[in-house]
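In this section we walk through a basic example: taking a raw amino acid sequence and producing a predicted 3D structure, encoded as C-alpha cells. The instruction is simple. Fold the sequence below.
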Amino acid sequence: LPFVSRQSGAFLNVYRIANLHDGLPSSSRCMHSWPILSPPKQSKFVYLRGGSSNRGVTAASILKTAQEQHKSYKMTADSGAANIEWSADRVRERFIKYFQEKQEHTFVASSPVVPLDDPTLLFANAGMNQFKPIFLGQIDPSSPMASLKRAVNSQKCIRAGGKHNDLEDVGKDTYHHTFFEMLGTWSFGNYFKREAVDWAWDLLTKEYGIPPDRLYATYCEGDAHRGGTTAPDEETRQLWLRYLPADHILPGSMKDNFWEMGDTGPCGPCT
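The resulting C-alpha cell sequence is shown next.
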C-alpha cells in the first residue's frame, strides 16, 4: 500500500505504509515507518519493529488505524478552518481573480505533478515548468500557449529531490513542505519590472490587506563588488522606493536574488 492521501481544508494528510506484509515475521529486524503530516504542523510517526511483539499486525489493521486518525485530524482541520480568515482556497481564488480580471491575464490550469512531456523532471517543482517551451523558443506555433502574452497559474509542485529539494527542511520550520502550490504570473514579451512591482504592491496591500509598514522587499546586489560581472539591480530598487522606505529595501545575494533555470538558459536578477 504505497500511498493513501486525503485533502482536507488547508492541510494535506499523507499516509505511507512502507514495506508491510500481512504478517511481520519475527526474524524481520527492519523498521517500518508510517508518517502522518497532520494539521497541528507536526509529523507523527508509528514505528513497527520486526519481532514477536508484532505478530498478528497486518497492513489492513494499520490502515484502519490511519483512517481513524485521519477522521480525528480532519475534524480538527475543519473546525480550525472555520476560524481562518484567509484560507488556502481564498488566497488562491483572490490571486487568480485579481490577475485575470484586473490585469488581463489568461488562467492556465496546473499541469500534472508528474510531467507528461518533460523527461528532464521527475516531478513538477515550479510554476514555470509547463512554460519552458516558451522560454526556450521551442513552443509549437499551433499550441494554445504560443499566443499567450500574460498568464496566471497555481501549480501543484513536489520538491523532494534534484536542484530544488525541500525534503531536508520539512519539520524544521512552518513553511517548507514536499508538496505545495506555487502561485505565479507570467509575461511573455509583454510587461516587465515596473508592472510586476506595481501589481505585487497592489495585491499585497489592497487585496490581501497586509499593512504596508510590515512589508520589506529585496533586490539583487549583483557580484560586481566581488569581481563579478553582474551589477546591482538599481532599477528594481528605485521602483520599490516609490512604495517603501529605504530601510525596508534590502540587497539580496546572487544565491537568493538571481534566478536561473539551469546552468544554461533564461536567467536574471529577481526581487
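Looking at the output, two observations stand out. Confidence is low (pLDDT under 50) at residues 1-54. The longest helix spans residues 59-81. In the next section we compare this with other chains.
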